[in-house]
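[audit] Reproducing an earlier prediction to check determinism. Same input, same settings, fresh worker. If the tokens differ from the archived copy the diff job will pick it up downstream; this log only records the rerun itself.
[audit] input (607 residues):
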Amino acid sequence: MDIKSIRNFSIIAHIDHGKSTLADRMLEVTATIEKRKMKDQVLDSMELERERGITIKMQPVRMEYALNNEKYILNLIDTPGHIDFSYEVSRALKAVEGSILLVDATQGVQAQTLTTLQMARDSGLVIIPVLSKIDSPLAMVDEVKMEVAVLLDIDPDSILLVSGKTGQGVSQLLNEIIHRIPSPKEPSLEVAKNDGARALVFDFKYDNHRGVIVYVRVVEGEFKKGESLLFAVSSEKFICLEVGTFSPEEESKDKIGTGEIGYIVTGIKKPGIASVGDTITYTKKPAHALPGYMNPKPVVWASVYPESQDDFPNLKQALSRLRLSDSSFSYEEESSGSLGRGYRCGFLGMLHLEIIAERLNREFDLELIVTMPSITYKVELRNGKSETIYSPHLFPDDGNVLKIFEPWVNVKIITPSIYTSYLMPFLYEHEATIKSTDNFGDNRSAVDLEMPLRELMRNFFDDMKSLTSGYASISYEIGEYKPADVVRMDIIVANEVMPAFSRVVSRRRVEDEAKYQVEKLQKIIPRQQFAFKIQAKALGRIISSEAVSAFRKDVLMHGSKVVGGGDVSRKKKLLEKQKKGKKRMQSSAKINISHEVFLKMMRSSND
């Protein structure tokens, strides 16, 4: 196939703006999938994606389409829309020449749309603006058209209108993709002269039998089965077992050449070799790695423990398997006196954490305890040493700390103007610094601010949605480290510190947080044979304390008979004996907190 007949493009948009539905209609119009085999969200292969109506892992597909008696190959990469997966979007943008900017006609431009649009512009892609859901009775076609036209500085009439539900406008969109998006560039003279080849790895998955399968965009040259290939960054050699394209299932080919998007079966069965952004080249004639390689860094940390320690080997194997297909999360073993052995895991964000935990449960049948998420702090100690802390119970005591630094995020919120006055006190409560507030289209405002990542994780999304009746949207990017005024708060049960409940909180909120956590645990924890205290300690002192009363056992009952008659000293003697016994028990007994208590504490905190 001539390289001039290839068009590589992606669909970028805010979450739930209809990317996957539009992709379904494209597959129908191009007859890539027969109607009898068609189902909703064809490119969302995970059951979890279908349930939530979101795209988690991107899926490429190759479509053939005829225009004016000429055949064209359209390579589409459907991308995630949630903030946590913005790195996946950036990978897709490096593998294409153009992008469809999809905007929901019922909602207008959202914050994440702006972030992704800027990424596409920085990559030098051709942007095709499209309004979706135009068949909806709630569609505001004219208003949103003007919003997009002002944003892109274009003629409103150049914006295409489609409906993923009915298929309206999809054929015209395919025609415009062919007209507007350029074909891939021809190989450079140097590479052509040396018979070299380079392919960009933009994703990969793991297969039990065939090992790691990398998804690639061939930049220069061609790749065939049986060739000796090399990962340019990791310097790992392998023999190509198979090459092919996506229709959307994997379809084996004799070769894949310049400009094509396809897959290469590596046979590698160990983690840490394949990585997104790496370059595949020939072993005999290695070429330089393509520019732009980066390794995604976790921003949220949480510990994962099996409910039953018998499942620890299964958890280890499951994490290793997931790591083979998702390079964006990391893990290392740790142990807790309360919870046993588990793993400290790093994630791209709260949704990423939730997705991984859900996959561990569904795909590997594991019941898990997930601790409170935390972030990374940089701490300067009074003894001159510096430490990087990513687990709250390892945070140094307040008296040993000289300076603390925490990551901040740059945030953009787009909201109807009527909610702006409600947002301001809410943002102040979350320690946000407002940088600017501007009008954004009709009756909407855009608020630019910066705030600690710690506060963004403190139910910020849910509270903001509640405050704005679900109309506000948000995007953020990780900024620099700034000084933090935070302290470690420990929860003490019966004079024993519970590391799983430790957390780092703002100094100004430590008393409220201590009271809340102590009262919550008091309601959840079962009573014992003796009375004990639940305390929250911070700043070198007890901040909050609640008592849990003991089970009362009437020692004046012996079997079915009541101790009665005779001298009252007999009753006093029994009561005194009970009192001493409870005192001995209180001084030596240890409370074993059940998994159910930990689960309720973690879940209620996350909720």
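[audit] rerun output stored. Observation attached for the diff report: The CA atoms of residues 135 and 577 lie 80 Å apart.
[audit] end
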